[in-house]
Amino acid sequence: MTTAGEQHVEPAAEPLAGFAVGVTAARRHEELATLRERRGARVVLAPAIRVAPLADDAELLEATRACAAAPLDHVVVTTGIGFRAWLESAGGQGTRDALVARLAEAAIVARGPKARGAIRAAGLRERWSPESEGLAEVAEHLLRLDLDGARIAVQLYGERRPELTAALRGAGAEVIEVPVYRWSPAEDQTPLRRLVGQAVAGTVDAITFTSAPAVAATLAVAAADGLEEPLLDALRDGVVAACIGPVTAAALTGRGVPTVQPERARLGALVRALVTDLPARRSRRLSVRGAALELRGHAVVLDGRLRPIAPAPMAILRALARRPGHVVSRAELCGVLPSRLGGGAALGEARPQADEHAVEMAVARLRRGLGRPGIVETVVKRGYRLACDPRPTDPLPAGAGG
Questions:
Q1: 206 is a domain residue
Q2: CA 84, 34, 260 angle in degrees (round to 5)?
Q3: What is the CATH number of the domain that holds 145?
Q4: Cβ neighbours for 373, distance < 8 A, ≥ 6 positions apart
Q5: What is d(CA 23, CA 259) in angstroms, rounded to the nearest whole number?
């Protein structure tokens, strides 16, 4: 609802302009980054994981031969890339035709849309697919069947899945685990550590995740630096966690983190969901001295023109925007400045003169960045305010404007 002192303004031409988005994808991260940059976002690339080849192909070779040697009753395909890699490996072994023949006879379970696409591209057809894309639903589906003596192949993706394979074996099935690839931490974790720090500091507006292992790797890096809980707090209270599907989001939702998810598990759909959600959650629109002012992550849109703002001036502007038209004291503003510029005090706590000088410098930079006089007013001996009528207004939502 629009409140006094606020009005709707048209966003900048690019819907994500002024926002910083972290990308943790190990695969197709360049495509994901391009999709975001085309919509104006500043992209922070920080791969969390990498696809590592198996140290020894002997296990994959043995599993493939076992699948091709005798009829299969059920086949669980967990990922599209894994299924394609399996068939490619079988082709190199000379067993692809025999394997495809066995797969055609079996009841194939596709965990999600990417797996379905790979199955159909191979000229096969899945028998069933879970709505949730989760292995728990796959297990429930199979366990409703008579599995005593059944042969089931499970294409693994990155790690063993004992919760599924143990349950199937407990029901009397022979389970063939097909290890196609595995996930490993990114060789250089510096970009991911930097991204975690930016999320905690509030200088990144969203982080995208396209796999559950990427979420796990990000939390592990944060934990190693003593930042796991601060990261989770940031994701709960402002920084948007955009996940490609419920499986990817599970570890975050289990920790109380709200997530943005597309209707379909596709990169384009993930970007569209972010375009819809991010401005709604991380922006604030005001009418100040006749100008339409919108706060975004690291920029403002003033009468439709995007203006990047440095962190310290933006911190001042956010504080003023929480109480539009009301005076905010220099002492209070000292507490919102980034720590390296004299911040870190509790709101309202008096700070040394040097800190107040830092506020004055930040306000001066803010005025230059806005490029329009009169937006930020000085109230002598009291502080600063945004030049709009001091009327009651809704409090600034947690995390809004970065």
A1: yes
A2: 80
A3: 3.40.50.10090
A4: 367
A5: 15
Measured at the CA of 119, the angle between CA 116 and CA 121, to 5 degrees, comes to: 105
- In Å, the largest CA–CA distance within the chain is 87
pLDDT in tens, 233-278: 999 988 999 998 888 899 999 999 999 999 877 778 888 899 899 9
- CB atoms closer than 10 angstroms to residue 257: 20
Q: Are residues 277 and 335 in the same domain?
A: no
Question: Could you give the C-alpha distances from 281 to 79, 100, 106, 111, 402, in angstroms and in order?
Answer: 32, 48, 47, 31, 9
For 126, the domain range is: 52-182
- Quick one: 379 and 297 in the same domain? yes
What sign for the dihedral angle of Cα 97, 162, 241, 109? positive
Q: What DSSP element (H or E) covers 110?
A: strand 107-110
pLDDT tens digits, one per residue of 28-37: 666 666 766 6
Above 50 in pLDDT, residue 349? no
- For 120, half-sphere exposure in the C-beta direction (CA atoms, 13 angstrom radius) is 10
Q: CA angle, 164 as apex, 94 and 55 as ends, to 5°? A: 45
Question: Helix, strand, or coil here: 392?
Answer: coil
pLDDT digit string, tens, across residues 72-117:
999 999 988 889 989 998 998 899 999 999 999 999 999 988 899 9
Instruction: Report the C-alpha dihedral over residues 374, 376, 377, 380, rounded to 10 degrees.
Output: -150
Tokens, residue 380: 């002598």
Neighbours of 373 (CB within 10 A): 10
65 and 26 belong to one structural domain: no
339/376 same-domain check: yes
Strand partners, 31: none
In whole angstroms, what is the distance from residue 203 CA to residue 21 CA? 10
